[in-house]
Amino acid sequence: MLAVVLGLTLNFIDIGYFTFSGKRSGFELLKMQSAQNVSPLVYLIDYWYLLLILITTLIITWRIFPKLNIAEHKSPKTNIVFEFLLMLLIIGLTFLGARGSIGLKPLNTLDAAKIAGAELMPLSLNTPFQMLMTMEQTGVDEKNYMLETEANNLFNPNHINLNKQATPGRNVVIIILESVGKEYVGFYNNGNGYTPFLDSLMQFSEVYMNAYANGKRSIEGIPAITASMPSLIPGDYINSFYQTNKLHSIGYYLANSGYQTSFYHGGKNGTMSFDRFIANTQAGTYYGLNEYPNKKKDFDGHWGIPDEPYLQYVAHELTQKQQPFFSTVFTLSSHHPYEVPMEYKNKFKGGPLPIHATVEYTDYAIRNFFETAKKEPWYDNTIFVFTADHSSENTLAYYQTAQGKYAIPLFVFDAAKMEKKNEPLLVQETIDHLGIMPLILNKVTTTKTTYFSFAGNGAIQFDGGLYQFIQYPYVLKFDGTTSVEFYDLNNDSLMLNNLIENKTASIQKVQEMEKYLQAIIQQYNHKLITNKTY
Questions:
Q1: How far apart are CA 175 and CA 366, in angstroms?
Q2: What span, in angstroms and rounded, lies between the C-alpha atoms of 6 and 2?
Q3: Angle between helices 28-36 and 2-21 in degrees, nearest 10
Q4: Is the omega angle on the peptide bond into residue 473 within 30 degrees of 0, that is, cis?
Q5: Are 350 and 334 spatial neighbours (Cβ–Cβ below 8 Å)?
Q6: Residue 267 and residue 289: Cα distance in Å, rounded?
Q7: Alpha-carbon distance 150 to 142, whole Å?
Q8: Angle at Cα 87 formed by Cα 83 and Cα 89, nearest 5°?
Q9: Spatial CA neighbour of 21 closest among 339, 464, 444
Q10: Taking the CB of residue 53, how many other CB atoms lie within 10 A of it?
Q11: Helices 28-36 and 127-135, interaxial angle, to 10°?
Q12: What is the pLDDT of residue 488?
């Protein structure tokens, strides 16, 4: 009965969390809870109806569960040979049941993808099984898809940046928007969104039209954005065996060019080990809730400091810094439980999802941040890079697909060039978080810079044992051995027609993308295993 209670509880917890992660949770869910420093009571209040259904289910299960009859009775005489054979049969069936397969390898999450397809894989799995599969992760294995020389020719993570047209000495500020997916940004959706101020900035910006996150959680987004390190493993890089690998961030490379570097997040210090990751990658001085001067007054009671007062604090902090500076700012308010500060409760109309009002509030906070920043001497010398750590819940079918749920905003606003721009520069090439490092280094460094980055020609994600590789408009899904799905978004925006399954895919394009993806995977695994991620 205890096992039934545990199994049902884990599955009900995952029902609530699935809307954020988009996948079945493994053992990393327990690590996430301990890392976030948030009381479980907050989630119980928000998902009270799931708790009520769980309790009802457990009561019904307990009432119908067969009761053990411990009355004394005499055991009938049985044949010893029969008992022995029966014992062997039970042992065999138990082993087979635990293994889940009669094939060469035991049952794992990838089997669900093969049987039900990637979209239905979370429905096919159950949370206790996923927990067991990820409980004792052993890291990645070496891949030998091709010779090392061929892999290096196709994809080499060791880059050399040399742009004589760059403008050295410019300040750089990355603003990471918590959970603000592409669907929420009006500029990308014919004005339908919750970010009027960001939309106005984008009219004078370099806007990336096909930008993607590398994961669905902040703990995957921060390493990808700041250090060009994806989580192409079960779980996440920060909590993996490779978390202590030598890895350099954007801040590290810019510090070597004379920049003062920093990272600001209004959340509790220690949240998801961001502070330790920033320290390990030498991304700059970390400023969290502990460093905020008015934390007792402004603390939101859940995560940290709301965006409006925190961004004002950041604006004044930047004024104190020596130029050139590089700073990353990670917003907070558009995170669950999606609470707008009391003084703004009636200001934002929001939309059908609870997050929408908080996105409007964050947009308003950024507007006020810019009003303050414009008055400071460093403003005209600053390049702002906007993106999101990941997307959240979506209402449109397009953004609920396997590629759409990773779609995020990405644009570069140069304060000095605003008056010279009459319209946005729309960049159509596919880019992901990993491309932010080379993007920034290419804009502000003229000296020869050697750096390490997994940025490539496309966007890559790892979800449920499947690699997803996007070179818009094409989407490839690869199981580590074979390409299993291929879509053309120009003709199939909702990814309903698997061209590999229907045998109508362009063989040349599939082979080209598969070969390139194999080179990335081979390099990624080898570099992690050998600690050559720098």
A1: 9
A2: 6
A3: 70
A4: yes
A5: no
A6: 5
A7: 16
A8: 115
A9: 464
A10: 13
A11: 90
A12: 97
**Could you tell me the sign of the dihedral formed by the alpha carbons of 310, 28, 467, 237, in that order?**
positive
Predicted TM-score of the model (pTM): 0.82
Q: What pLDDT, on the 0 to 100 scale, is given for residue 533?
A: 93
Mean pLDDT by groups of 10 residues along the chain of 534 residues: 77 73 62 58 79 87 70 64 85 76 59 56 71 66 96 96 86 98 98 97 97 96 98 89 89 96 95 90 94 93 93 98 98 93 92 97 98 97 98 96 97 85 90 98 90 97 94 98 97 96 89 98 95 91
Q: Is 189 strand, coil or helix? A: coil
Identify the H or E element spanning 210. Answer: strand 206-212
Residue type at 326 in one-letter notation:
F
The candidate with the shortest Cα–Cα distance to 7, out of 128, 139, 161, 110, is: 128
Q: Could you give phi then psi for residue 267, rounded to 5 degrees?
A: -80, 175
CA angle, 52 as apex, 132 and 20 as ends, to 5°? Answer: 50
- Tokens representing residue 501 in the block: 């399954």
Q: Where are the alpha helices (DSSP H) in 342-389?
A: 355-373
pLDDT given for residue 118 in this prediction: 47
Closest CA to 248 of 159, 129, 338: 159
Q: Nearest 5°: CA angle at 393, between 266 and 463?
A: 95
The string over 169-204, giving b where at least 16 C-beta atoms fall within 10 Å of a residue's C-beta and e elsewhere, is ebbbbbbbbbbbbbbbbbbbeeeebbbebbbebbeb
Tokens 């920034």, residue located: 440
- Alpha carbon 376 to its chain centroid, in Å, reads 34
Percent of the chain that is helix, strand, coil (3-state, to 5): 45, 15, 40
Residue in 307, 311, 309 with CA at minimum distance from that of residue 335 = 307
φ, ψ of residue 528 to 5 degrees: the values are -65, -45
Q: Which of 331, 243, 239, 314 is nearest to 281 (CA)?
A: 243
Tokens of 153: 């020719």
**Per-residue confidence (pLDDT) for residue 114, from 0 to 100:** 47
